């Protein structure tokens, strides 16, 4: 591929935004394609100097998990399904507002806050809802407790935190980065290309991710509940309890009026709007991060639970930050049996197992596939029940034919 225009045309883009940050001619802008996600557009592509920096940072085109990311003492049983994990913890943010508002236990936010308040980091680059159009996300640098608190919670809509890596590069001190697995992969690639960025990434905190629904998902969900997007002033996809509710606040009313739906119902609806590239994503748990946070779904959640997160420590830096936050009282954690990770994320394991077959089906049709290495894809495929192997490969063939994935998208 010559540039990221082709990556997008072949539906390989994951919308991380790293290409916008890296382009030395600032020729890349990002657009939100309502039924797909955030995608780059190269202005005056004929004047592009063909440096290929955009391709070099692109996790959509290539994601390689090299042994260079591994550290000693990783948990062998978790490696094939979840990458390098050296410790598994379960717990929550010590601050009750962060815990209550957080997606699971508010740990991503609490760890970021510790890094800012106690480790001298300048801020946290992450995602917030747009004030004007709450179904849209934007990248922000949070520096205070109230900033961090306001940005807690998962946003099941396109987000591209790597689009603003310049803010980390230009910051007077190292910063926290929070993003999905593909965002963290984009960050790491950009770090390899830009030493000024590399020096200023204090820690990368990744969240677990099964796929990002397009904006169409949110629009259709609002329509399903007969809500006009123009009347909406706030959307929360979850949080305020665990797993929390999909919650819409309407604007222009004298007393605030809310619409609420259960997490099961709203995610059950939204997950149908994930782009196909997410079905080819092996990294559901942010393997390139120093610390990963997800839901401990291994047990039933009772109605009055305030929230718990799983925390995976992946690097020595991650270990130091988790221990420091624990000692300083920012988080409440207990070491867990590594087995709870497998029990918590069965869907992510099933998805990883299906990828090898999906890629083979695409190759049979001559469709470009992402280059994925170091994720034990073949051995994960071999571990998948035969029925699931057949179902996922045939499902891919059906999608290729019905959605015409055998040819590139013309315009976007
Ligand atoms: C698209 C998506 C898919 C998910 N799939 C899974 C899954 O399969 N399994 C699972 O266990 N959990 C999943 N989650 C939930 C999430 O990984 C966990 O809840 C995690 O534990 C973080 O919770 P927390 O309370 O520690 O984070 P919080 O303290 O609430 O912080 C959340 C952080 O995530 C950032 N963020 C929110 N939405 C996005 C986004 N779309 N892109 C980038 N950054 C974002 C926020 O800016 C904030 O910094 C998903 C979340 C998203 C956004
Ligand atoms: S760098 Fe990110 S946003 Fe740009 S084309 Fe690749 S995946 Fe898409
Ligand atoms: S499933 Fe993978 S590619 Fe899709 S949004 Fe999540 S991390 Fe990115």
How would you describe this structure to a colleague?
By secondary structure, this protein is of the alpha/beta class. It has a domain at 70-213 and 273-340: 3-Layer(aba) Sandwich (Aspartate Aminotransferase, domain 2). Helices cover 37% and strands 19% of the residues. The chain has 18 helices and 15 strands. The chain has helices spanning 4-9, 18-22, 53-56, 76-82, 96-101, 107-118, 145-150, 165-169, 181-193, 195-200, 215-224, 263-270, 276-279, 316-327, 339-344, 346-364, 377-382, 386-402; strands at 28-33, 37-42, 62-64, 87-93, 124-129, 137-142, 175-179, 201-207, 232-236, 245-250, 258-262, 291-294, 309-313, 331-335, 371-373. The strands form 4 sheets. Strands 6-5-7-8-12-13-4-14 form an 8-stranded mixed beta sheet, with helices on both faces. A hairpin with an 8-residue loop joins strand 9 and strand 10 (245-250). Helix 6 crosses helix 14 (316-327) and helix 16 crosses helix 18 (386-402). The protein is globular and about 55 Å long. It starts with a helix and ends in a 10-residue tail after the last helix. The structure holds flavin-adenine dinucleotide and iron/sulfur cluster (SF4) (2 copies). One iron/sulfur cluster (SF4) binds at residues 4, 7-8, 13-19, 40, 57-60, 186.
Percent in strands: 15-25%
Ligands present = flavin-adenine dinucleotide, iron/sulfur cluster
Number of strands: 15
Name the CATH architecture of the domain at 70-213 and 273-340: 3-Layer(aba) Sandwich
**CA radius of gyration:** 20 Å
Distance between the termini: 18 Å
Low-confidence stretches: none
Structural class: alpha/beta
Number of alpha- plus pi-helical segments: 18
CATH topology of the domain at 70-213 and 273-340: Aspartate Aminotransferase, domain 2
The best one-word shape is: globular
**Strand count, sense and closure of the main sheet?**
8 strands, mixed
Average the pLDDT over all residues and give the rounded result: 94
Helix content: 25-40%
State the CATH class of the domain at 70-213 and 273-340. Answer: Alpha Beta
How are the strands of the biggest sheet laid out side by side? 6-5-7-8-12-13-4-14
